[in-house]
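fyi for ur records
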Amino acid sequence: MASKLEIKSRIRSVDSTMKITRAMQLVAASKLKKCKSRMEENREYAKYLKESIDDILANLFDSTHPYLVHDAQKPALTIVYTSDMGLCGGYNANTFRILEENVKKEDPIIIVGSRGNAWVRRHGYHVIRSLQGINEEGYEEIAAIAQEALQLYVNKEIGSIQVLYTNFVNSMTFEPRLERLLPVDKKEEMTSNRQSMIFEPAGDAILDTLIPMFLKSMLYSYWLETKASEQGSRQNAMENATDNAQDLKEQLELSFNQARQAAITQEITEIVGGANAL
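which gave:
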């Protein structure tokens, strides 16, 4: 059994760690609230823009616009969102698992986040661009990524654009998802369920403006989902760490009390033994 001094030293160490994890939990909770509010506000815009795209596609028949045609012979560009900091549980590990299962190492990747950048380079993926330290707003950086991806698509260097992000379900549940953004899918039920509408400019011309806007909007929406998921995962991880530290502290205090009681009992035994010897 460890001595009382060793146990007391460990109690102080655990108590200090618990204060740090509790502080980080509170910081993550504050950031989560801001990220969640921004995410929910943007969701409405992204939702209605997606519905507008669906309405337009429902009224385009036999279109061969490049934004609607998938070239299976060309590689897919994957935009991957990860965190810049750790201490967020299995947040990044879940993203890396989906990446390993669905993306070829020779296909181009745009990686966002220092944690993901280090991982993909260590595992030999083809990284064409990496971004780190994007601020909380982040729209300009995400729009620049979308513009670069569109240019590669228009130049026919890639056949499709997909994004790997973490979907925010609630404060306890976060799901990594791989979504294809280009070419835009035209669902079979669109034609039968949508009413005929007139758009200006007519035909494929409207897609030249609307699809880039759609790509930027969806990439930014998924970025906000990812940031909210990161803060939620970090809050949960720090809460669990704080609870575990509290349990460990209680165990150490019990061990300390047992050691102190044993020492007192030993002293009493020695005193009684000495008195009997007299």
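Helices lie at 4-58, 91-102, 114-122, 139-154, 190-193, 205-277. thats all i got for now
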